[in-house]
Amino acid sequence: MTRPTPETLAHTARRARASADPAAADPAAARAAATPAVPAVRTSAPAQVSGASSLVRSLEALDVDVVFGIPGGAILPAYDPLYDSTVRHILVRHEQGAGHAATGYAQATGKVGVCIATSGPGATNLVTPIADAYMDSVAMVAITGQVARPSIGTDAFQEADIQGITLPITKHNFLVQTAEEIPQVLAEAFHLASTGRPGPVLVDIPKDVLQASTTFTWPPTLDLPGYRPTLHPHGKQIREAARLMAGARRPVLYVGGGVLKAGATDGLRRLADLTGIPVITTLMALGAFPDSHPQHLGMPGMHGTVAAVYGLQKADLIVALGARFDDRVTGKVDSFALDATVVHADIDPAEIGKNRHADVPIVGDAKHVIDELIAAVTVERAGGRVADLGDWWTQLDDLRNRYPLGYDEPADGTLSPQYVIKRLGEIVGPDTIFVAGVGQHQMWASQFISYEKPYTWLNSGGLGTMGYAVPAAMGAKVGKPDTVVWAIDGDGCFQMTNQELATCALEGIPVKIAVINNGNLGMVRQWQTLFYNERYSNTELGTHKHRIPDFVKLAEALGCVGLRCETADDVDKTIAAAMEINDVPVVIDFVVGKDAMVWPMVAAGTSNDEIMFARDVRPVFDEDDI
């Protein structure tokens, strides 16, 4: 069993200081502290240094406590001053792991996640996590080495135009031209990544720029003409939204991940309690509103609850807060919520009206929008204008009672994956951070674990990246070392990035991994069952039939504790055994049945009206509601 190294232990005090920082403990506080991104109190007298030293000193001045990366030729000059830095560097086993770890760190802490790679293949290996962060609006700065300036454009060894490659998937990116501009570029990158709608920013630095001599001073002056995110909404639009909320008969609050980004969960709770309006939280917003709250209808969309899908579809008013009307929520968009007036509030004006016309567009930060909506709704209520939602709640409660989330036990006696995940959530509790891969296990984790607190659910929502869970869990655990972090992964996803468990073992990052091993690419197999006449082309992985790989032996080879569970009777005690181990990573191979499916389901490209509660079972609505 591999134990933490002396080098790892040297960072213990630094991690303790980070965990004692209120902003580190509260992602919302960290996000508030991120504006402006340049610490006002930290100054540095001019010093003659290399470009590489200027880069590392800039990271220190920006209060970066950890970066995830792999050295290589073009970025190597930066690794020399990093050797003596207060910034902790975690040596990952693949650049994709560095990117997802930075994302997990950012999502769990509210700080900017940082990853580092060299030029060419090192940089291109970051493309997937950069795209993932872009789709899910995660504050991340990716620093890449580049070939020397005279070699750019010559197809030099390990050259790739990473600035051009990532242009469509970054909030902004930079190709640094001189060593003198490094502090300013870094400060601007962090400011852009963490303010407005968060997102990834790439900083590409040629090797000769890192080697050049320069004068380092701090703080730099930001020069971002035209970048002025609108935080406070227009008062007239807020008043109109409040008027509509007071008069609606079938309203819903459609809550997206932007509410979490803005640290607006307390305000959301107050708004919901004040209005009595049903609340629907997207996959990216789980935990923003307590699952147990009586007004929570659950998750909408392809695998959402019947009540949530129906609520959106039949609403006469949709108040969208930090959500983007993506296809997984709307289904066939031209049949989505045909009778609804739409209030759409988002900090990114490009999202408003992009997929669904907004009758009342509101540009602003979700926290300010919600706070001002509360004030405006309070005025409406003082004037006697209060919506009567009795009939609406009667319909919704009837659907919740008739079509609750559930599952059938496998007929062949195999272990139910839903049971495993449900028991995991019940045993480890609501303070745990859960990180999911992509596929059936992701949907079951969203359905059968109760998320009562914000920032306890991390997943790849927009891009749907297999391989996200293990490195993202690693990053989350680094950012929140005193919090239990469980990754729920599939046997397909797990085989893409499990090499980062070696990183976790050597660096003293005791994550816990539940592999939901059904022997197949489960979600693809489900589609083959439903839409391809059970022709299972290239979806069997061999982890059942041949036990290749043997996940327990693989875990042990990577310096982890490996456990296996194959029966329902052993689920609780296996989870309890994993919870007792806190000094090394733990992997549990849950061998489950291959035929379990995710229900409810709205098939891709169909209307939400065609939601299936189970196979060949379509919900029956009252005639007046159809």
Structure explained in plain terms:
Mean pLDDT is 93; it is low at 1-25 and 30-41. Helix 7 (95-109) runs parallel beside helix 9 (127-135), helix 13 crosses helix 18 (366-382) and helix 15 runs parallel beside helix 18. The protein is of the alpha/beta class and 626 residues long. The chain starts with 5 loop residues before the first helix and ends in a 35-residue tail after the last strand. The chain has 27 helices and 20 strands. Helix 21 (440-448) links the parallel strand 15 and strand 16.
- Cα radius of gyration in angstroms: 25 Å
Structural class: alpha/beta
* Mean pLDDT over all positions: 93
Q: Tally the beta strands.
A: 20
Q: Distance between the terminal alpha carbons, to the nearest Å? A: 60 Å
Descriptive tags:
globular, six-stranded parallel sheet, alpha/beta, 20 strands, about 625 residues
Summarize the helices and strands and which ones pair or pack.
Elements: H1 6-9, H2 12-20, H3 22-25, H4 27-33, E1 44-50, H5 51-61, E2 66-69, H6 76-82, E3 88-91, H7 95-109, E4 113-117, H8 121-124, H9 127-135, E5 140-146, H10 162-166, E6 172-175, H11 182-194, E7 200-206, H12 207-211, E8 213-218, H13 235-247, E9 251-255, H14 258-261, H15 265-275, E10 279-281, E11 296-298, H16 306-314, E12 317-321, H17 327-330, E13 341-346, E14 360-363, H18 366-382, H19 390-402, H20 417-428, E15 433-436, H21 440-448, E16 457-459, H22 469-479, E17 485-490, H23 491-497, H24 500-507, E18 512-517, H25 522-531, H26 551-557, E19 561-565, H27 571-579, E20 586-591
Parallel strand pairs: 2-3, 2-4, 4-5, 5-7, 6-7, 9-10, 9-12, 10-11, 12-13, 13-14, 15-16, 15-17, 17-18, 18-20, 19-20
Antiparallel strand pairs: 1-8
